[in-house]
Amino acid sequence: MPAPAGLVAEIIVARPDRTWDTVRAKLRAATSLVPSSPAVFLGGALGLPLGVLEQLDFNVPIVGAVVEDGGALAALGAVHVKDGQRVVQLMTSSTPRYTKEAKAGEETVHLVPSVADPEGPSFAVSGNYLVVGRGKELLERWAPFVTRTLPARPLPIEDIAATATQGALAGPVATRLARLWLSWKKDREADDAAMRAKHGGSAPDFGDPAEALADMDARAARFFAILGDFEEARFAVTVHPSEPEAPERYRAIAHLKARSVGPAADELALMTVAPLDPLLALPASAGIAFLTRDSREVRERSAVAQAEAMAKVFGGRLAANDKTKIETALRAFAKGRGDWLTGALVAGPTRAAVVRGSVAEAAEIDQSAFALLDLLSVRAIAEPISNWIGDMKISGVEGARAAGETEIRAVRVARRPPKVKLPRDKSDKNEKPERPGESDTFDIVWAIGKEVFVGAAGRDAKQTLASLEKPEEGATLARIVHLKSAAARFGPTVAFALFVDPARLGAAPSGPAADSTLLFTYGKAPGPEARAFVELEAPSALVMSYAGAVSTLLGSSH
User: Fold this and answer.
1) Is 197 exposed, middle or buried (0-12, 13-18, 19+ CB in 10 A)?
2) In sequence order, what are the residues at sequence separation of 6 or more whose Cβ sits closer than 8 angstroms to the Cβ of residue 369?
3) I need a surface site. Which of 152, 215, 252, 493 has the fewest CB within 10 A?
């Protein structure tokens, strides 16, 4: 059966019984209120007669679709049953009772509740499938396609897979994302107008929200154009990875196939990819770490775009020579660094911000370091930093300039408390309350080698820098087994990676064996076809901790 007009995505749950058992086993760690089988859960959620539960067959894939119906998105799913006619008989003779409706010569039998429920689901039996959706007309139109065509699709290796075509991406998907963005943008513009009115029509103190939104709007428009140009998008979820190093982690991945010509193909052609290894060389105590890869062309183009965006946001607060300072600093750094760059916020007693990257032109990196420090004297930048972070007074710059090529450069920063007092995190026992007029100091140090440059900012920055120059595997992120497994699995395909450890940031429970780390990556697969991927991997314990909070609404233990 061909798909009727309006198909947005096809959905297949490949092994419902195994997927349920895996999720249930992991969810029981968070709560005991988990139904013993998917039949019990589904029966309770949909209000099915008890006799129907034994007919539900979860050894066969569940299939479904997301469709555009009357300008709105709707979904329907089909669960395989042992005997379709027996299900019709049970639904029409049990409690709650349903009435059978069927057109002559058609295989779809609609089951209408005796007591009408406008907010409840609609049911139909088509062949040996129980079809569930919202509205009789929806099932009438889509049930044959869902129950006859989708079961013949190749079985995905993942637990859940959804596929959307270019028509859906360029139409319903992009349209709705654009509407969400426009709604959010209008709300922010209204907030800006309200704040200006509250302060007698004056402009904001720092930056121009309208210009920032305009820049974001241009970026959003490009994103929607690229998204709508992909030939196909496939989203899949794995709740039981096959790698022995990652058995307790969930993985969600989207594969995007670009057409041979167009914005999506152009974007992928410019994408620089290589292994995940530089991320693994960062300190193991990192709470947040990132890896990014860009070609020289992309870096230099981005530097100019960033400088122009900052100039628009700062508006009249930015003098002409200050704009030149910003562009010079950004362009020098873009020209000096190589194809990969990593950075991290190191948690623990020796907190620090670190950066490590490849070198293209050492002299340009050296020049950019001093140019970036000089930006702290730009009024449009210094004032918001002073209000929210504190006044920054830098000393030792001349000594750092005089250092030899192979020597470590270091400057000292004295910070006075900010004018705006932010609420303290009382959970951080190592954090000392600031006193009026009290200053603190930290160092910014960096070193530039022939292939790699490193930098650190913190109270023990020199010690941190030493660990970056000669990283030992046991003290780096490489010691995390599932990260090493991910690096082997990805190979030379990664363009960007973001690692987050909520436990180190104080946002999740921590323990000796607890895993709370998340890994977000995107890149492109090797081969003649232009295929991009976006992946998020998270520990099942973290996912289940959120799921457990709402599990009481889903059923009770059996």
Assistant:
1) exposed
2) 409, 446, 455
3) 152
Nearby residues of 61 by Cβ (< 8 Å), 6 or more positions away: 12, 13, 14, 15, 16, 80, 151, 155
**126 is in which domain, residue-wise?**
7-155
Domain count of the fold of the chain: 2
Contacting residues for 458 by C-beta, under 8 A, at least 6 apart? 346, 350, 351, 352, 353, 442, 443, 464
Domain boundary among 447, 470, 493: 470
Omega within 30 of 0 (cis) for the link into 96? yes
Which residue's entry shows tokens 């869902």? 146
Query: Where a domain ends, among 470, 505, 528?
Result: 470
DSSP state of 115: S
CA distance 523 to 538: 18
Rounded distance, CA 430 to CA 48, Å? 55
On whether residue 513 sits in a domain, the answer given is: no
Q: Is 459 helix (H, G, I), strand (E, B) or coil?
A: coil
Least confident of 122-136, 495-509, 535-549: 535-549
Dihedral in degrees, nearest 10, Cα atoms 154, 156, 162, 168: -40
Q: Is residue 546 part of a domain?
A: no
Other CB atoms closer than 10 Å to residue 143's CB: what's the count?
25
Each residue's pLDDT tens digit, 326-382: 999 999 999 999 999 999 999 877 789 999 999 999 999 999 999 999 988 888 888
Structure pTM?
0.85
